[in-house]
Task: structure prediction
Amino acid sequence: MPAEGRPSRERLALRAALLRLTPPLESVAEDVLGVVSRIDLVARDPDGAVTLVLTAGAGADLARLAEGLAQCAWLAPRLSDWQQLAPHLGLASERGVRLLLASTRFDDRTRAAADSIGHERVSLAELLPRGDLDLELRPLWEAPGPPAPRPLLPSRRSGTGFRTGLHD
Amino acid sequence: MARELADVLHYFLDEDAGARGPATRCLALVAEPDELLGVALLWNLAHELARCGLSIAWVTALSDEELLPVDATGGLTRLLAPVQGLAGLARAVREAGGKLRATRAPGLVLTRVPPAWLEPGAAATELLAWSLLLCGPDAEQGAEALARGQRVARVCPGARVGVTLHGVRGVREAETAFGALARGVACPLEGLWSYGLLLDDHLLYDALLARRPASQQRPESRAAQALRDVARLLHEDWQRDAG
Result:
């Protein structure tokens, strides 16, 4: 892979940190050109729910929150296409897109704005460097509880009576 | 495993990009690694379902399965997944499902899951959403099957759990045994799906040893007829789910 196409050290560390979250987030696409600017990373949780991940430098978190919401709005209607075109990714397109904004520090206005939007749509995580090669993401709020079980297969609840085509 | 957008770009450029991919499911047989009937059933079922027109990917995480023969010309491929534990197997199944979808043929991933691997917390929805148990006619065997079904439901709420009866003398005994099982269903298990019965189980082993599926080796035997019937029920449900 050419050097310019290689993921940066920071992004590799971010990938690993996302996998350590609860629930873990697995990167499915990175450095995606979204609306005007690029999305750092798109990830999925074990149930296929999609999270758009943006990082923000110090002092840029409020602007990145607004940008993240715009990118979520851009990505959400495209998810069903992604799911059709890359079904092995197992994206739960019907569940929309959640934003995870990671920053070393959050302005109080960013926290208030994220709070008012709702934690099911936006979450904030402190980005804590761990040496040169690693970092930790510390969510400011607990992840929302697991959603109610969705039907996995049609008519799953009914079971069946005994079935066979054989006769004694 | 991280994927760059470039990794999926070819899907976007596919000339048939607007078409929905073919349906693919996984059927997981929950059985102990040393339950030879489970191996024999899955091996025979893989060939039988391939004959029904499904592309079969048999994901084998248990080492003894590496030695089993597969008919490479019959739409059946075996994918070795040297993993230990539910999360690794779930990932292997997901990848196998992706490979099947890429062939654009209707497909089914088959695999065995040891009950000891059924620990809550693993992301195993695709792996366990359709699970199959083997159960004998005795009350003790029934209790064990129900316990396994409950473990599946704890790990994968809403899973469809099916049962194939074995060790029975005929249809009536199997029907009685299934009725007793169904009455024993309790939360979090939401119901049991019947997938027929096996007769003359030993012929499934014989087929395995002879490297010829029972339906080819002794097509008129009760074992082959019962096996075809189990495959038919599974295939019908697969078709119904695929809509």
About this structure: Chain A touches chain B at residues 5, 7, 15, 23-24, 26-32, 45-47, 82, 84-90, 149-154, 156-168 (CB under 8 Å). The CA atoms of residues 162 and 168 of chain A lie 14 Å apart.
